[in-house]
Amino acid sequence: SPGKDSVTGHWEMAGIVLDAPFPTYPNGFPPEILEPLEAAIRTKTIGNCPASGTEIIERLGSEHVQTGFPIVYTSADSVFQIAAHESVIPIDRLYEICEIARKLLVGKHAVGRVIARPFEGDNGHFHRTERRRDFPLVAPQNLLDRAQAAGIGVHAIGKISEFFAGRGIDVCTSTTNNPHHIAALAEAANSTDCGLIFANLEDFDMLYGHRNDVRGFANALEEYDASLTSFLESLQESDLIIITNDHGNDPTTPSTDHAREYAHLLVYSPGLTGGISLGIRKSFSDIGATVEDNFGLEHGAHGESFLSILK
Predict the structure, then answer these.
(1) For the chain, give me the number of helices (H) and strands (E)?
(2) Whole-number Å distance between alpha carbons of 155 and 150
């Protein structure tokens, strides 16, 4: 797919290959977007520029607290982000504003995600809370729909449900950080309720990649590696785990943006007897095709399964 954002990456894993990237706004959003939004929510907005989430609340947080105007901003990705102090705009109202924006952002302005970015603090010392919520486009038919229809059962952990607008999912565990994602993944793997478990660990990206925090990124990798020991030991012979990343986000480069670098692909099952190089794959959709092959599902239009070459 011609994109490098989380929705694009996760959709492609599920067999959706985009023909065009989601729209981006390096110069801010045009009046044809903001004016209908401000009319619908009955208040002005401030910001309307590309910025990092931490920088924008440091710069405009005090003005927001004084005026009550939501902060609208974007990034290099296809996102329409709305930040608000939880004591100024209650969290349910912030979600409502985002839902209004989502309905307006269609057609040529159909961004990949509208994101609620709540924060707290005072006297210019602000910090984001973990009550972020994403409002994505509704995905076309995909792997999750086919698995659910076949009675496989789909368990979404972390932001997965938001990437797919809740569709094709039987169980949703809305964890908000890596330790909780990892714990939920281990619990789900020991359950027999669902056959397909799909988890996203966003701390690598959100806390470290975007902030060029090399040490934090390394520490998070070490913590995840350590958690894998007991997790892999708990797997059954027929279980299959696939580990990848939805896009690049190198904390050692000057950019704080996502990158289209190669993603890693690690596949393991206790039933495998050896190791093999899977080579350079053509698409994330190979993952979806492999999962479909594993469960005996009808294949979608994209992807080449690598299940038969695993040893």
Answers:
(1) 10, 11
(2) 14
Dist. CA 99–CA 237, nearest whole Å: 44
Strands (E), the chain: 46-50, 71-74, 79-85, 113-122, 125-128, 133-136, 154-157, 171-173, 196-199, 241-244, 265-268
Buried b (16+ CB within 10 A) or exposed e, 186-221: eebbeeeebbbbbbbbbbbbbebbbbbeeebbeebe
CA atoms in the 13 A half-sphere facing the CB of 308: 5
10 Å Cβ neighbour count for 36? 14
Residue length, the chain? 311
Residue 294 has pLDDT above 90, yes or no: yes
Q: What is the C-alpha separation between 232 and 262, in angstroms, rounded? A: 25
What is the per-residue pLDDT across 228-261, written as a single tens digit (0 to 9) for each? 999 999 899 999 999 999 999 999 999 888 888 8
Query: What pLDDT is recorded for position 256?
Result: 87
Q: Which residues are CB-neighbours of 72 under 8 A, at least 6 positions away?
A: 29, 34, 37, 45, 46, 47, 48, 80, 81, 82
Q: Whose CA is closest to 82, among 59, 99, 103?
A: 99
CA distance 188 to 250: 30
- pLDDT tens track for 26-77: 999 999 999 999 999 999 999 999 998 999 999 999 999 999 999 999 988 8
Gap between the Cα atoms of 13 and 289, Å rounded: 9
* 91-124 residue pLDDT tens: 999 999 999 999 999 999 999 999 999 999 998 7
pTM for this prediction:
0.82
Burial of 265 (0-12, 13-18, 19+ CB in 10 A): middle
**Encoded tokens for 136:** 């994505």
**Cα dist from 72 to 30, 125, 167, 259, whole Å:** 12, 19, 27, 24
